[in-house]
Design a protein that fits this description.
CATH topology of the largest domain: Arc Repressor Mutant, subunit A
Radius of gyration: 25 Å
CATH architecture of the largest domain: Orthogonal Bundle
Number of helices: 18
Helix content: 40-55%
Largest sheet: 5 strands, parallel
Structural class: alpha/beta
Strand order of the largest sheet: 2-3-4-1-5
């Protein structure tokens, strides 16, 4: 594909789209996902070699949107004089064009059209029934306002778009896919790159693999002219009317205040915990924040053991190392000094949790055929302390569960320069007995950046239930 941005992976998504195209049937398809996840690039790649019309709507008026679409339609159909006076008129022109053969029509950022034309769903529905369904038209409704698409287009209540034939939520890359962008880096560097740049294709594409991670952080994120220096701010200001309040909430989470009461206390948002809960729900709808509960919990929405975490690693980095230090980053000297004094000394701790844990969890999810989910676990465990039984807070970095919620594997992650200690095995054995009191001990997985204790290596050599995973295996 021509252009500066390379196209990586997405083999599954391309195969599904191509399969539908090859079927030759008229269909309405919805594709949605967060900004920068690569929706437009995927669809433009898919459109190659096909008769197609790709239209990206803007936030302008309804008249401007229709006029812009008319221009693109005239270009695609090679009809110089084409001026639609209504969306029905424009869609009829698409149907006429499809009379000459199969066409792919993409309405990208469709939420802008729907916002200015509230009846667009009904218009499409009637047109499809009367004309579109009889022509070889592959109509894709695409957008980045994920809450709108899940609620109004892809949801069961979206009767206006009831004639759609399928949908696809485009997700960020998996953690291991960072290797596509930094193929020659070491496994440890790849984990760190994921922790800083995340798994959004656009962010990863800013990495210059010929430079080391520190230089990439400096040039792309810390320097005021770096492409990702203001990316987080622009993202939120485009999506939210009250961006300032949401900035405070995200900054609190990045600083370690992860529960509703803690966030409310730190931010001082008017309305307190009630308003913070509403804001967190909005951020969850945008896939920017996730609510975490122990992976063994059967009814997550009712669990009181929850805390909140920023989903995107790049946003975690930005809210921790960029936003609080804006005044330091106004010039090159400040950025260089901040990298040396603050970012690099804290980078290993930042990579350790949750980024390294996420890489390990995703690896185990694909390693175990029976795993339905892999995540963290925490809770109170009754243990002897001296002569007394006490409830002690315990947690596990990696726990795999099957479709019935049963624990099938436990794991420990350590991003330290020294070897993972044998005491981690004793901890996992004890918690395995607690979580599975009447079952055989589950497999144990140990993930370490700095190697493994000699005693643990010796036991792993004799016991196939123990697996030691070095970073190289994760990629």
């Amino acid at each position: 594909m021509s252009g500066e941005r390379p196209f990586y992976d997405r083999a599954y998504e391309l195969e599904r789209l191509q399969r539908r195209w090859d079927g030759g049937q008229a269909q309405i398809f919805t594709l949605w996902g967060r900004r920068r996840v690569g929706k437009s690039l995927l669809l433009l790649h898919f459109a190659q070699g096909k008769r197609h019309l790709y239209f990206e709507a803007t936030s302008g008026t309804a008249a401007d949107q229709l006029a812009d679409f008319s221009v693109r339609l005239a270009e695609a159909t090679a009809r110089a004089a084409l001026s639609a006076v209504s969306w029905r008129d424009a869609l009829d022109a698409v149907a006429d064009w499809a009379g000459e053969g199969p066409v792919l029509v993409v309405l990208d950022e469709f939420q802008h059209i729907a916002r200015e034309n509230p009846d667009i769903g009904s218009i499409i529905n009637v047109w499809w029934r009367e004309r579109g369904a009889d022509r070889p038209i592959f109509l894709v409704l695409c957008g980045s306002e994920v809450g709108f698409f899940e609620r109004e287009v892809a949801g069961y209540s979206a009767s206006a778009y009831g004639r759609r034939a399928g949908q696809l939520r485009l997700r960020p890359f998996r953690p291991k896919d960072v290797a596509l962008f930094v193929e020659d880096w070491t496994a440890q560097e790849k984990v760190a790159a994921y922790a800083v740049f995340g798994n959004m294709p656009y962010y990863l594409a800013q990495i210059r693999p010929e430079h080391d991670l520190a230089e990439n952080i400096l040039n792309s994120i810390l320097m005021s002219d770096g492409l990702l220096h203001e990316e987080a701010r622009l993202l939120l200001e485009q999506e939210l009317s009250d961006a300032a309040g949401y900035f405070s909430v995200l900054r609190a989470i990045a600083a370690g205040q992860t529960r509703v009461s803690q966030i409310a206390a730190r931010t001082g948002v008017p309305g307190g915990a009630t308003r913070v809960s509403q804001m967190l729900d909005t951020l969850r709808d945008m896939w920017l924040v996730e609510r975490l509960v122990p992976v063994t919990v059967s009814n997550p929405e009712r669990s009181r053991q929850s805390f909140y975490r920023i989903v995107d690693p790049y946003l975690r980095f930005w809210f921790r190392f960029v936003l609080p230090y804006q005044d330091r980053l106004i010039d090159a000297d400040g950025a260089v000094g901040h990298l040396a004094a603050r970012v690099l000394p804290e980078l290993d701790e930042f990579v350790s949790s949750p980024a390294f844990e996420e890489v390990c969890q995703q690896w185990l999810l694909h390693e175990l055929d029976d795993a339905a989910s892999v995540g963290r676990w925490w809770g109170k465990v009754r243990e002897m302390r001296g002569r007394d039984l006490r409830d002690i807070d315990r947690e596990l970095d990696v726990v795999a569960v099957d479709g019935g919620g049963g624990v099938i594997a436990l794991g420990s992650c350590k991003w330290t320069t020294g070897p993972l200690p044998h005491s981690e095995k004793r901890k996992l054995d004890a918690l395995a007995a607690y979580l599975l009191p009447n079952a055989d001990p589950p497999p144990l997985y140990f993930f370490a950046h700095g190697g493994f204790d000699r005693r643990l290596v010796a036991e792993a050599g004799q016991n196939p239930r123990i697996r030691l995973i070095a970073p190289d295996e994760l990629f």
